[in-house]
Design brief:
Helices cover 46% and strands 19% of the residues. It has 351 residues and is an alpha/beta fold.
């Protein structure tokens, strides 16, 4: 954001009714933006156990948070409107929270019991909000939640989505019966004791009597894991048979995580996708990218034979170029070259 815009924002008086939300935004702005690294499980078994509930938040400067606050609120002063007009459309999306996060924040602030949101694009563009609680609670709040979500979408100028409010189905975890619990306790203890006697390095023995699997996590280097894996598996099988528990399989693993640097496209594409797919006028049905060479691929619903196809393709490309040349995105690209491909409904390039 350049000095002129900063100066304009400094002149804006914050309405008293928004003061608390601004203070909260300033506190949140202190958090570092940590999207360049992510944890990823290495093995198939690791992925089975890897369960993370994600709420994607984008944090930037205090000025940007204030800007997002004014954009999403009903109050927009003439001075703020002037500031907003100086910021490219896609850039403003990149600098603010995703639409899903905005919706979750607003609904939770109003006290609704929300389990999550989701956006689907086929067969139609639909934004779904899932509500926790009883049937009576769901029926009581459903219409108000839908009204709130539609209001947020309207404030962003997003007219491409229909809104669906659904009830979260109860997830009942399987509870072991008395006999299964006894079997689990015996095998957990017996296998653990035996592995300790043989001086194996491990940090987990977990029995699933329903699926007849014993999970064992080996602690140590990959070389150590490769050397002991088969012996550990055989030891566990011997314990199950000695205690008259048949047909068990043994899952021996060495839990690891890889630290993978997020690629450039993954950091930039979400803002492009939200901006282009949320408005009917752009007729965008899909946004993707290729990493090497970096290419942004935009799919549209307009036929190449349409007289307006070339103009639409050029407009979309211009918007993306303007976004990619912005100061913040230029730092991410770091002079990396890129290509923008806008495709018609019949898969022809229209830009």
């Amino acid at each position: 954001m350049d000095n002129k815009i900063r100066q304009e924002m400094d002149k804006i008086e914050i309405p008293k009714e928004l003061n608390n939300r601004v203070i909260l935004g300033m506190e949140n702005a202190k958090k570092d933006y940590e999207r360049h690294n992510q944890l990823k499980p290495e093995s198939k078994s690791d992925r089975k156990r890897w369960s993370l509930r994600k709420k994607i938040m984008f944090f930037s400067s205090v000025a940007v948070l204030l800007l997002g606050l004014f954009i999403s609120s009903a109050f927009v002063s003439p001075a703020m409107a002037k500031v907003i007009s100086n910021i490219p459309y896609l850039g403003s999306i990149f600098q603010s929270e995703s639409i899903s996060s905005l919706i979750i924040d607003e609904l939770e602030e109003k006290g609704y019991k929300i389990s999550g949101t989701g956006i689907s694009y086929k067969p139609k563009k639909e934004l779904e909000v899932r509500v926790e609680g009883s049937d009576d609670y769901f029926n009581e709040v459903k219409d108000e939640i839908e009204k709130t979500v539609k209001g947020i979408l309207k404030s962003k100028g997003y007219d491409a989505y229909s809104v669906k409010v659904s009830k979260e189905l109860a997830q009942n975890d399987y509870v072991l019966n008395e006999e299964e619990l006894k079997e689990k306790t015996i095998l957990d203890n017996k296998v653990t004791k035996k592995l300790k006697q043989l001086d194996y390095k491990f940090d987990l023995v977990q029995t699933d009597p329903k699926e007849k699997i014993i999970f064992i996590d080996i602690d140590g280097s990959k070389k150590y894991y490769d050397a002991v894996k088969d012996d550990v598996e055989k030891t566990a099988i011997d314990v199950t048979e000695l205690n008259n528990y048949k047909d068990y399989s043994i899952d021996v693993n060495r839990p690891t995580v890889k630290i993978a640097k997020a690629d450039t496209g993954a950091l930039i594409t979400p803002a492009i996708a939200e901006g282009l797919m949320s408005k009917k006028e752009f007729k965008v049905t899909g946004v993707g990218y290729k990493e090497k060479p970096l290419s942004f691929i935009i799919s549209t619903s307009i036929p190449s034979s349409d007289s307006k196809a070339k103009a639409l393709g050029t407009e979309i490309e211009s918007m993306i170029v303007e976004f990619l040349k912005s100061e913040e995105i230029s730092k991410i690209l770091s002079e990396e070259s890129y290509e923008i491909i806008v495709k018609s409904k019949d898969k022809k390039k229209i830009n």
